[in-house]
Design brief:
With 371 residues, the chain is an alpha/beta fold. It is built from 11 helices and 13 strands. It is 36% helix and 14% strand. The two termini are 23 Å apart. The structure holds pyridoxal-5'-phosphate. The site of pyridoxal-5'-phosphate has 14 residues, from α4.
């Protein structure tokens, strides 16, 4: 059996570099609650990402839940079914109702032209996702939000470091969230962050992620516990130093896939735009069963047989899960583009550690099936 090729591989700091950081933590005996490494990581992330206010979190789901609290969102939230399930779960955990709107098949992102028709008197927010790190049409979305007085919260879990015309995509909307999970381009094992626009809001977010404590005895809000600890903050500082090199490797992988799949009948991949700085977090392909002569699932399982593990991100659609499928907006008829994408997508292996042989094996399997 050929070597196993996984869809992702975590970027790990060297143990040698990590040990002195651990020694510092052990010496100080300060292991969580806004310690030194936590403060350093927040500052380093601001510098790296080009944002002004960031709060580090223990994972990428809690910043979504906390942001909806901080923005005091109630009622209905317009969102996309084509995402990781945490996006919609965050709305549900706040006791709000998700309203699904279809996506643009070119980007996988919420189609701004369909948002207005989904607005009701109960709508209070729009929660789009920059799927695969493709920036949403933020200006159009903001114009709708302004017109109807809605908040905009971006799930930017895939968009670490993504820029449009040199500006961070994380500055769009009222808030943006990141995930630093092991499977993401930049990881702190588990981790995440919430980006906001001003220091007062950051202060409130920092209260909320620590039970609502605003002082030793004062609790100002029904907060939660989602603080990042010192060990993972230190790990995150080290990974930040090597993330650019990892993104460069990912870019080379993307270039290889693009050049070898350009003329593959029935295989589509997403075109890049000149004005965007990508992070190459995923490489989705879309299999047209008719043209390709094999369905997405047939190809997916054929890859697995050969020890090549892609992922069907995002399949099934969030709107098909038992919690959400009863909603009126969850119907297939309402979501034709998202349904088609979910039926055709495979994310190919994409990480910093793929060798030339790995990539050749993957491509050979995808293209030779015609011969
Ligand atoms: C990974 C991910 C999350 C959740 O992040 P965790 O760190 O795993 O909690 C949320 N939204 C999207 C789109 C994701 O891909």
């Amino acid at each position: 059996m050929d070597k196993k090729i996984t869809v992702t591989s975590p970027l790990l700091p060297s143990l040698e570099d990590f040990m002195p950081y651990l020694e510092k933590i052990w010496e100080s005996k300060w292991i969580t609650n806004n310690g030194n490494f936590h403060k350093q990581l927040e500052q380093a992330l601001c510098d790296y990402l080009g944002v002004r206010f960031i709060s580090a979190f223990t994972n990428g789901t809690l910043p979504l839940i906390t942001a909806l609290q901080a923005l005091r969102i109630t009622g209905e939230v317009i969102t996309t079914p084509y995402s990781f399930v945490a996006t919609t779960h965050a709305i549900w955990w706040n006791g709000n109702k998700p309203v699904f709107v279809d996506v643009d098949p070119m980007t996988g992102n919420l189609d701004p032209d369909l948002i207005e028709a989904a607005i009701t008197p109960r709508t209070t927010a729009i929660m789009p996702v920059h799927v695969y790190g493709n920036p949403c049409e933020t200006e159009k979305i903001q114009a709708i939000a302004n017109k109807y007085g809605l908040k905009v919260l971006y799930d930017a879990a895939h968009a670490f470091g993504v820029k449009v015309d040199g500006h961070s995509i994380l500055e769009a909307g009222d808030m943006s969230t990141l995930s630093f999970h092991a499977t993401k381009t930049y990881n702190t094992i588990e981790g995440g962050a919430l980006i906001c626009r001003d220091s007062e809001t950051k202060k409130r977010i920092d209260y909320l992620k620590n039970f609502g404590f605003a002082g030793e005895t004062e609790v100002v809000a029904p907060g939660i516990n989602s603080k990042m600890d010192e060990v993972r903050a230190a790990y995150g500082l080290l990974n930040l130093k090597q993330v650019d090199a990892a993104i460069q490797k990912r870019k080379e992988v993307a270039r290889f896939y693009q050049s070898h799949l350009l003329n593959a009948p029935g295989i589509r991949y997403m075109k890049e735009r000149e004005d965007i700085t990508y992070n190459y977090s995923y490489f989705p392909i879309f299999v047209d069963a008719q043209q390709y002569g094999m369905s997405r699932d047939e190809l997916y399982f054929k890859m697995r047989e050969k020890n090549i593990f892609g992922r069907r991100y995002f399949y099934p659609l969030i709107s098909t899960f038992p919690t959400y499928r009863g909603l009126k907006s969850a119907s297939k008829e309402n979501l034709p583009n998202a349904t088609k994408m979910a039926d055709e997508v495979i994310c190919l292996p994409m990480h910093h550690d793929l060798s030339r042989e790995d990539l050749e094996r993957i491509i050979a399997l995808i293209v030779t099936h015609h011969k």
